[in-house]
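TEACHING EXERCISE
Course module: macromolecular assemblies
Task: Read the component lines below, then compare them to the predicted structure of the full complex.
Student: A.B.
Group: 4
Components provided:
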Amino acid sequence: MADIIDMPKLSDTMTVGTLVKWNVKEGDTLAFGDILCEVETDKATMEVQNTIPGVLLKTYAAAGAQLPVGAPIAAIGKKGEAAPDPAAKKAPAAKAEAPAKAEKAKPAAGVPAIPESTGVSCAPQALASGDRVAASPYAKRMAAKAGVNVAALSGTGPGGRVVANDVLAAASSTPAAPAGPVNVAVTPPADGKGIQPDADVAVSGMRQTIARRLLESKVTVPHFYLETEVDAAPLLALRETLNKRLAEAAGKDAKDALKLSVNDFILKASAEALRRVPAVNASWAGTSIRTHGAVHLAFGVALEDGLVTPVVRDAQAKSLREVALDAKALIAKARSKKLTPAEMSGSTFTVTNLGMYGVTGFFGIINVPNAAILSVGATVAKPVVDAQGRIVVGQRMVIGLSGDHRVVDGANGAQFLQALKQLLEEPALMML
Amino acid sequence: MAKPIALTHPESLKRPPGPSAFAKDPVNAALTKADKVKLYTQMARIRHFEQRCIRTYQQGKIGGFLHLYVGQEAIAAGTLSVLGKDDHLITGYRDHGHALMVGMDMNSCMAELQGKVTGCSKGKGGSMHYFAPDKNYWGGHGIVGGQAPLGAGIAYALKYKGLKGCCLAYMGDGAVNQGAVHEAYNLAALWDIPVIFVIENNGYSMGTSQERSSAHPGSLAQRAEGYGMDWDLVNGHDLYEVRAKTAAAVKRAHEKSRPTILEIFTYRYFGHSMADPDKTYRDKDEIKDYRENKDPIKLWEKTLLDEGVLDAATIASVNEAAMDEADKAAAFADESPYPEVSDITKDIYWEEDNRGPATNSRGTIIFGD
Amino acid sequence: MPVLSYREAIRAALREELRRDENVVVMGEEVAQFNGAYKVTEGLLKEFGPKRVVDTPISEAGFIGVGIGASMLGIRPVMELMFWSFSYVAFDQIVNNAGNIRYMSGGLINCPIVIRGPANGGTNVGATHSHTPEAILASHPGIKVVCPATPYDAKGLMKAAIRDNDPVYVMENTILYNDKGEVPDEDYVIPLGVADVKREGTDLTIVAHGRAVITSLKAAEILERDHGVSVEVVDLRSIRPLDEETVLASVRKTHRVLLVEENKPFCGVDAQLAYLIQAKAFDDLDAPIGRVSSIDAPQIYSKPLEDIQIPNPDRVVEGALKVLA
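Instructor-supplied answer key:
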């Protein structure tokens, strides 16, 4: 059977050859060592010697052709034999076979496997350089164990790097919040009944998010707290009047009429107060403070298994009615679990209100990256001294502000509360 | 530049080829007919193996360098056929002929060229690095001349152990100017080491002819005189002469523990390696002349025909069998698997490959990322 | 326990191994009749004769090649280099032949050879005689490198090297040759690849090898006395194989590391160690890894400057304080 001669590999680096000229012609009888042709390689022009004694049946390539190593150039066989079809010849072996085998080879113990693809584990962490905390790897690990927030520490290492000693100092001065699972040894109820089963209840995704975000806020943000008491009587009076008029305007559809809540007023008043004291409408951005043009107001909505904070967008440009309508729609969605992530993100300020539970005053944890959170207590009837020095029955509401001291100082916070107090006590100002 | 001194050739090379003056040398007189046919067979096997390699190389299955022994067969056959059980050898990178001559099988040799795990070095050595210590064959060395001190060391060890043996340390004519070779010459002569340095002089150190590379007093072997060493010139196309002169050097080594330099004149028909265009430095007619008139196998064939030892039918069957064996070796190599990835980190340290209570190695010795 | 110099400890190892195994041969320039250029082999010719203790000509490529060839047949040559700097003329033998032959033969051959001699600067002899090639050589798979720092280690490591079936290159130090220490009379070997904690501490780990260990121990005393710092000094003893676990355990204990070596910094042994530590103990680091090595220039001849070029206790203290900052 005829043999096909391929474009030979004539050097260790050759991949393509140019057939310079044929030294033999079809029908010639060839011995071992006869020069078949000349081929120009990457190194030199070389003579190709015949290795198969026989008759040159056919040449498949003309002088001047440039061919890859392994491409058929001629057929040699017995005299009178038909030249085979070069296309029928199997593709150059070895080459294709080698990598396939290598891939299949199973690395033995002790030899690192060749990874399928690299790069995944090497991908840089998506941390803006401004957000990066300079801390030693060991300090970071220690802090994670001790529940200490390295970002809140000022490092004593070179360039302010937080080192192990800084974490140790912090851990010993503040009680550590255990971050990992805690084994609490609690004796079961003596009567075997108790108020609920002793159990480990799996944490929902929402609960995990709350835990992570609030822990992060509480340990990374330097909170400060301001409180003031507001005379809520004018607000309550206005609310009653407006709700009465709204119901009348709705006529027979009164039960569908818009009913303003105290919270709606507080939201609207907050937006206006932020317009007056914009320093509070800002965020900490590592090496800068980011001020925000719009007031996107988040407010807490308690749910059975947690809480969410939907956002009223562009509250600075909305009327009381618009704010109220937005808030009600968001509350309805929250309760039916239909809030989108977009509706719960991007706030610049948050209002939380526990007044409906009779809580008289409290301080919320800042909803990062807001610079502050407003906490609203219940309106309580109590004796107050009026402008004339008389003790009268007052409608009093305590409002508290938790501020991020990196962004807001006490004075800014106080100015904000002052503006808010004025708006709530003279609610007509909200209409301006 | 002073005109180089012309190279002196062995007497037999100065005349047209004819009956060997060494046919009656005792080492040759002792050969039986079967021995003579075996020598013919061994040379034919080397030639057909090498010629089969060309095809495999051109098919792209042999990587790197491939240095062929075609034309030089009588050196391996002649020198190695006079050795005894405590005689050893080491050579440079043109090492296939010696390997087949000492009895390495074609399959493992061909598989090694293709980098297969069934190769004589498990695919870790390649063409230049064949080894068979069980057959007293210590390689197969890639760096020109680097094996010369090792050869002296092997012979030193034989002497140290009180064995009556020697080591043949082969090199090409291009190696003779390497410092390590001269250091080995000096130590061999100084310490009476039973080593025989065999210069396989094929006329060219790669593409540089001998006249353009080596200064000498008349031959490369004659440099031995500078070290007070014996030397001889050998016609490498005459198997009887190669055997006779090697036997004399072996006797000197065994009986006097003295080294020798043998310069054996030979010729390679192919380039220094397969990547060598082989037309910039020598004449085609020169190659043709050697192939037609001085080919060691043809000359041995003629001698044996004249002696009535060989006949045409035997010649045909020997060559056919050798070609068939080479073809089968190529097929064996094709079908053999490559080493596993895990094999990359084996055979580096004896102590690691044999780690156990008796070894003193601890810690990390193969490093990962 | 007897107190021996580092030089005597090596000699004791050679003598014991020459007695134990008749295939052990000591070979090198001036090792026999001259009693050793640094007197390490003093008296061995007298005891063992010229077959076992062999003077060579100045011909490193030649005699080391002879030793490698002989080792392939089971001889166990212990070759002395007057200086490891001279290994450079025998590099093909040392690296290509001794280091590769087992691999290239697919495991058929091994080379149980030891090459030993001083590899150090600090003796006012200029650049050609002051090389520390442990990193260069250890970067070749197939080769083992050990660097003893004390007489005890010198004897135990030398005996392990001679019994090892692979090429082991032992780097000594002329400045340490007169250092004295307790060395047991009995036959003991220190396995290759086992580091030694030469001093325990809690605040900083110094990893060193060879004479840098001695320098680091002096620095550790100063750091304790003047700065109240507790320093742990880990002596690698063996460069390849490398005792990664002892290094990592110390880093996990102190969380701060200073690497000290007499090599030049680029591609030195400590480059590999720094990689190792960041890869395997990243979360334990409380500061970037520090490094003190020879100042990156050919070895200077001028003595006062050479004493600064090579790590000295003051430079190590300075480096330590940076890591401790």
